[in-house]
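As described in the Methods, two query proteins were run sequentially through the folding procedure within a single session, without resetting any intermediate state between them. The first query and its resulting structure tokens are shown here.
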Amino acid sequence: MGQPKTREEKLFSAAVLRRSFELRGNEHREEFLFVFRGVLRDLALEEGEVEAYLAAHAAEVEAVIGRGPKGRGGGA
């Protein structure tokens, strides 16, 4: 098994998940909330923490999902 994720890595992952679903619109909102809340529980995070992380690291998250400049190890 790999090394445990850092708190920063957990927040980043949850922020990417949240933003990815936001971009899909509200069609599957209930399903997303079910999955997202389970992920938060598993990662021992609160929704407000993820929102704050996303606000502070929006460009980095957007880059990873292909909507901005490359970040976090992205690029050629």
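Immediately afterward, the second query was submitted; its sequence and tokens are:
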Amino acid sequence: MGPVTVTPTAARQARFSLMPAALTLLAVLAMLIVTSARAQDGQDVDAVLANITEAARALEDASFLLEGKLVNSDGTTFTLEIDILTVPPQNLASAYILQPDALADNIIVMDGPAVYNYTFLTNQVMVFDADDPDALGGLLPTGEDGATANFNFDLGAIFAGFDASIVEVFEGEFGETYRLQFSNKDPSAAILDVTALVPSSDWLPRTLVFLQADGHVLAELHATDLQVNMGLDPEFVRELPSDAEIIDNRR
């Protein structure tokens, strides 16, 4: 199956289609276009992060297509296309994987203290505690309380162990856009730097680029077709194939 162009709505309508699956690239779920630049102005980085936090906390729900790539150290590139639905007040999110092909039609639902991983190939749903270090190979992000996993637009919370700075402010696709740099305080960490693009029109991040110490791009993620506060039905976000076998690994 080659690259697929599909809207989040269409992806949900086709969520039970036929494709093989695997778990080897689920690390991307742990991560969660510019014109000419002009001089940095306006706000300092703390004010920008505060605006991002406020915007993230105001979200009732969001839908977007996560597009981008993962790049191995040998240069092998994997295309990413994942349909994301999230209801932050309920610590609820789902990810329907379109690409990479090896994971196509897998679904992950993060629902408060539980994580549900649907594998198409076996038609099984594996259920884990969200704070289980072995859940999905320990690749899922944990929330502030250490007991939930979810997608989060709050860059200040996600990169709390990083030093933040404003690289530039420029006019981009969504108007005035801040290019932020997050530098890991641990120089030996696998991810050393992260660059983010955040438009001031809504303060919701659109692009994240993860870099290793040698400048190697580890991942490049773009949130496209972003829609917010649509009144998403939480039961729709939780939906998984009704005929799947349930394997409960919760403690």
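The chain has one domain: 37-248. We note this only descriptively and draw no conclusion about the first query from it.
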